[in-house]
């Protein structure tokens, strides 16, 4: 089975030049863009643009958007992207909940489903639960290019294998990407929840250098450095929650003591959000000083439930702007969908 995302079931997308053209069609919106403008902005010859756009039209990805006024010569026909020509499913597998989102080619949300999930129920049960949600969601749109899956780390993005998820060591070594691809018959990409969210935020224009801190059932970070998502050599970057800041602190699910995650979630459990924000801010300050990033974005269900003390508390401890991340409760699932869509438009390497 071909599990490559670029051009899954769409031959016209297998070209880097086609991705450039598609991205310009996408950003042009309903007004569209002419073939001459496409040639000028991509550096391709008019003949090459004509061949690419002809293939895109054959695939149903592009359509006429009306004629442009003449600037001396024959008026040109503008082309636009057909958002409904393809879709991506984004999945957020949390420890206790599944969020599934269907995005069209423009990145617009078509449908959302949420359901309880027990990540400790065993890989086989989780695969079946996820497959049922994907199949139900797929009926809301047309052809699906692929499925992006985001879950707590650590995991290996390159091989699609999960590792020892904190609290669920039974996942260590399970080939989740390939198991889901075989079950669904679709291309699948697997990444950490925080990486997926950071990718989606970067594509929304969040900046060239930022950290996304996600506080929910766990605590992690997604990093965008120099305009690119930074995963590390083994997808290990961003294990933010398991840095020790109190040597004699409470035991964490990872086996260490005094981790930011244990201290932060403990304070949340006691209802002491100011203390939780203080701990989170201490870790964020370390991260800002270490990486010299420009901005900190906060998200996750705990932050979303009461953002003010976290934005204020973290902001008091770091020297860069601190804001609530766009996307709300679906920021991870949307980012997971972008793991599929972004490479189609040449915008990111998933």
Order of helices and strands: HEHHEEEEEHEEEHEHEEEHHEHHEH
N-to-C span: 18 Å
Sheet/helix structural class? alpha/beta
Major beta sheet, specifics? 5 strands, mixed
Strand content: 15-25%
For the biggest β-sheet, the strand order reads 6-5-4-7-10
User: What percent of residues adopt helix (DSSP H or I)?
Assistant: 25-40%
Average pLDDT, rounded to a whole number, is: 90
Radius of gyration: 22 Å
Tally the helices: 11
Instruction: Identify low-pLDDT runs.
Output: 1-9
Shape: globular
Number of strands: 15
Question: Please, could you describe this protein's structure?
Answer:
- It is built from eleven helices and 15 strands.
- It is an alpha/beta fold and 350 residues long.
- The strands form four sheets. The chain has a five-stranded mixed β-sheet with strand order 6-5-4-7-10.
- A hairpin with a 4-residue loop joins strand 5 and strand 6.
- Helix 2 (35-42) crosses helix 3 (46-58) and helix 8 (273-291) packs across helix 10 (307-315).
- It starts with 15 loop residues before the first helix and ends in a 6-residue tail after the last helix.
- The relative contact order is 0.13.
């Amino acid at each position: 089975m071909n599990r490559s995302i670029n051009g899954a079931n769409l031959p016209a997308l297998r070209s880097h030049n086609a991705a450039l053209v598609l991205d310009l069609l996408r950003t042009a919106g309903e007004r569209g863009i002419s073939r001459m403008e496409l040639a000028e902005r991509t550096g391709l010859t008019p003949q090459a643009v004509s061949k690419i756009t002809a293939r895109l039209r054959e695939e149903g990805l592009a359509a006429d958007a009306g004629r442009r006024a003449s600037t001396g010569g024959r008026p040109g026909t503008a082309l636009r992207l057909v958002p409904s020509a393809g879709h991506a499913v984004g999945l957020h597998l949390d420890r206790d909940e599944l969020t599934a989102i269907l995005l069209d080619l423009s990145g617009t949300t078509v449908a959302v489903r949420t359901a309880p999930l027990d990540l400790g129920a065993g890989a086989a049960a989780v695969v079946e639960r996820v497959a049922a949600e994907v199949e139900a969601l797929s009926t809301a749109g047309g052809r699906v290019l692929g499925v992006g899956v985001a879950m707590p780390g650590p995991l290996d993005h390159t091989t699609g294998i999960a590792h020892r998820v904190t609290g669920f060591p039974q996942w260590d070594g399970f080939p989740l990407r390939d198991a889901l691809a075989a079950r669904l018959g679709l291309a699948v990409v697997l990444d950490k929840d925080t990486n997926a969210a950071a990718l989606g935020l970067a594509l929304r224009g969040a900046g060239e250098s930022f950290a996304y801190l996600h506080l929910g059932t766990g605590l992690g970070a997604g990093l965008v450095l120099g305009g690119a998502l930074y995963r590390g050599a083994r997808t290990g970057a961003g294990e933010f929650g398991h840095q020790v800041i109190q040597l004699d602190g409470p035991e964490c699910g990872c086996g260490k003591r005094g981790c930011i995650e244990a201290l932060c979630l403990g304070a949340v459990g006691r209802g002491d959000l100011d203390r939780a924000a203080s701990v989170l801010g201490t870790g964020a300050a370390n991260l800002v000083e270490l990486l010299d990033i420009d901005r900190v974005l906060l998200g996750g269900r705990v932050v979303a439930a009461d953002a003010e003390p976290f934005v204020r508390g973290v902001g008091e401890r770091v020297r860069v702007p601190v804001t609530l991340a766009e996307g709300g409760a679906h920021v991870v699932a949307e980012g997971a969908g972008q793991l599929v869509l972004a490479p189609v438009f040449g915008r990111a390497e998933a």
